[in-house]
Every structure is written in structure tokens, then in C-alpha cells.
Amino acid sequence: MDVPISRRDFFDGIAVSCVAGASAASTTGPIAGPVRTAAEPATAPAALTVLGDTGEALSVPHALRDGRFWEHAGAPAPTGEHYGLVVVGAGRSGLSAAAEWSRRRPHDRVLVLDNHPEGGAGRERLRRGAAFDAVMCDKESFGADTLVTLASPGWIDRLPVAEQARADLRTLYDAPPDWLPGLSPEAKEERLAGLTYSAFLREMCGAHPDAERFLRTMSAPEWGYDTRAFGAIDAWGTGYPGFAGLGLDRSRPSRYNSAAVRAEWHGPAPEPAPPAAGHVRWSSPVVSVRDGAGAATVGYFDGHRVRTVEAGAVVLACWSAAVPYLVPDLPEERRRALSRAVRVPLLRAEVRLSDPAAWRRLGVRRVRWTGAYWCAAEFAAPDLVRLLATPCRSELGPDAGSAAGRRELFRTPYEVLEHTVRDQLARLLGPAGFDPGRGVAAITVHRWGHALAPQYCRPWHPFHPDGPSPADAARGRFGRIAIAGSDAGDGAAVLAVEELSR
């Protein structure tokens, strides 16, 4: 474990790709980080490649948040540019708004401003549906590490759990009864909407604690938190074990399902194309948006000073929490609504193996861990292992847990992250002849404090699905400005354009 690796990169970013597939992560380039050779000590100066949501990309937004930016920014300098539409944020929501505006008003000039370097911030969501072919019942959960291959017959019999837990898991997977006899389907869905999946297992199914513990991290690789925060109604909609006996209609989603689960019935939304009549201006964090009688004024920092452009309309497609700092004149009710959007943190590691033969001898490709720091691992030929960690404190719920997990993540030294990577690879691959010292050629860690947009979901958000939701309260038009934040769902972009087009 003390053998130095030839290259160690630690990146900070929000480019969301998952351990679920090689193609998802292949679009995410380097984001930032210190690069050290084996001969350099741990305290050697860092050679930085700054892309994505790094300290430099966040320095201006954080200075705005902390009230420090305008102390040193100087007076804004007008560029003399005028656009029919200026969009703040070049993610899915921003590009959708720009494309919709260009479709409706093809002769307008459109400008999209984003604080990330070009190509440095991927916008992919975590991909759902890729199955794990093995589970590591780890020592953090069950006292010792036991790898169980799920494709082999009788895998439940090999789990290191109590006999009653094995019986409960067989029932959940193979023949779950109707846990709510006599209730209508609508009443059953309402009962599920009031529980997390862990609570469903414990309280409704009476499952042994070992059974709940084995299933707990099922949701973590896809949602960023485990089943103590994942709603039972969404677990039903995603096909988790234990619901088949309820007799609910699987041909349609429940009204209580979150928007992400409901969207899976219709397939993924197509990626929007950049607007034909405009362009994206990268590395240009927006610092102010002001409505005016003849035009709105948008100020952005170009790396040296604040520049301003004029716009007939502005769509704010950035993070909801950033909007009040850009538009300080917003009514207090809308500011409070925007502040309620709490993003989920994620951590991803890419490990280049010096000798990948041990993983091939292991005979599996995707492994879910039941309680260790990294909750998922996947091998990608020829020599790459991807790991995913979910820092959210799920026992606190998705909102409070994400905030607490983000604080802990930012306090975690990179040396600890490296140790956990090597430790878990040693535990997983050691029986197949892997050396965690000489077997690791390079480690790249991508740290995302604000990765996944929040989901309005049961049982945490009682206003869902009937509303009004915080996004509804925040999204309305404000003069020439409309809010279509990336935390408000894909449809917000079109709604914002419709409001501004009236």
C-alpha cells in the first residue's frame, strides 16, 4: 500500500457520469488537479490543469456568495453587444432554452454564458438500469468480506447473513405476498409514498435487519443516496424486490413517483443542440442580471474584469441556489424557494491497473458494496477500474444528508481517498493475485460537491406531486428575466421561453 504510483490526479468537478458504463465516463475529460510523479513528495507543488467545476471555476460564484466579489471587481465595462436572448448556464436546461428560443425566433442572436471551460463540464446524468453481477458483502456491514456472484444459482444461500434474513430475501425476490390486503391500488401507492425503501422492508415486510442491510446500497450508484433516503414508491417504480404481490399496475407510473422515475416510462430526453443563431461563451461566470426599461443587462467576468451585454430577455438556467446572488432584487419568497434546492454530492475514482489480469480472473465486471466507502466498482477494458462513492448522509434524508455529506467530503484529505481506493481493490482483487501497491499505475479522483439536481420525491417532500413546489414558486417571470434552473426539471426551459415570448 505504500508503493508510490507514477501519477496521481485529484480532480474537482460536477461532470456527472456513472460507474454504470464505460461510455458514460468516456465523455468526461480531465477536470483539474495536482499531478505528481513518483519521485515527488506528497507536498510537492501541484501542476494544475483547470477544466470543469474546479476551484477556479467556482471562485467567482463563491466570492459572490460570500460578498467579496464586488470589493475587487471594479466597474463593469459595456461590450456594446445586444442579443435577443442571453442564457446563463450551458447545461441541458440552458441549451434547451436557447434552442427553443431560436426555433421560435430564428433571426434573434442568442448568447449562452457558462463559468466552465469549454468541454470541461459534462452534463450526463447517472445512467440507470445497468445490473450488478456481484455484491461484496463487506466487513463494514457483516464483519468480513464475502463476494457473492448473483448469476450463480442459490446465491442467497451464500450470503453471510442470518438464516432468517436469507428466508426474507427469498420471499422478497421470488414470492412477495400482498403486504396490504384489502386496500385499493391507489391506497397502496399512498402508503408506499409515506415510506423509504428501508422503512418498507423493516416495517411493512418485517424483514430481518441483515436483509435490509444487504439491500441498502441498491439505490446509491444511481441516486447518490442509499435506501434510507430512497422512497418506497420510487423503489417500486424502479423494480426493486418486494412489491410484486401488491398487484400494482406496472404499465404506468404512480402519481407519487418522482419526475426521474416517471421519465423512465417514456425513455430519456434527447440532448439539446446548441442554438444555431448564437454561441456559448465559456469561462464566463455571470455576476449580475438587471432588468431595465429597454433591455436587461447581464454582467460576466472574463478573467480580468466584468463585461456587460444587453438582452431583450434572459433565461437563468444555472443552479437555483446561485440565482439570488445574480438577481438581488428578487422577492424574498422566491429567494427562499430557490435556496431549497440542495444538490447531491458524488465522488468517482478511475484507477489504471498495471496488471488487469486479477480482475479478469475474478470473473465479474460490476460489483456493489454493501457498506464500504466506495459503493460500486466496474472494470472497463483494457485496464481501467471505476469506483463510485456517495457521501450523502442518507439517514438524514436527501436534503439534509447531502449538505452534511458535502461538508464531510470537503474535509476528507486526498490521501484518505487514495487509501480507501487501494484498500477496497486489495480486498476485492487480492484473492485473485492483485498487489495493491505495484498493481496500481494511476488514480484519478473526481470530487463533485454539487453533482445531482435534487428530486422532489416522497416521503421527503409532502407537496409532491400536487404542488406547489419550490420550483413553481421560484420559476415565474421577473420582468425580462425568467428562471429555468437546472434544479427545476427539463420542462422548465420551455416554460421559461413561453413566459418570455408572451
Task: Outline the structure in words.
The structure is a single chain. The protein has helices at 22-26, 55-65, 69-73, 92-104, 139-142, 163-174, 185-193, 197-204, 209-215, 220-223, 232-238, 259-264, 323-326, 332-339, 357-362, 398-411, 414-429, 470-475, 492-501; strands spanning 7-12, 77-83, 85-88, 110-113, 134-137, 146-149, 278-281, 286-290, 296-301, 306-311, 314-316, 344-353, 366-369, 374-380, 384-389, 440-452, 481-483. The chain is globular and about 75 Å long. It is an alpha/beta fold. β9 and β10 (306-311) form a beta hairpin. Strands 1-16-12-15-14-13-5-6 form an eight-stranded mixed β-sheet. The longest helix has 16 residues, at 414-429. It contains 19 helices and 17 strands. α4 (92-104) packs parallel to α19 and α8 packs across α11. Mean pLDDT is 84; it is low at 14-53 and 119-128.
Termini, distance in Å? 63 Å
Largest sheet: 8 strands, mixed
Q: Report the structural category.
A: alpha/beta
Strand fraction: 15-25%
Strand order, main sheet: write it out: 1-16-12-15-14-13-5-6
Mean pLDDT: 84
Question: What is the alpha-carbon Rg in Å?
Answer: 24 Å
Approximate shape = globular
Q: What is the number of helical segments per DSSP (H or I, 4+ residues)?
A: 19
- Residue stretches low in confidence (pLDDT < 50, at least 5 long) are 14-53, 119-128
Oligomer: single chain
Beta strands, count: 17
**Share of helix among residues?**
25-40%
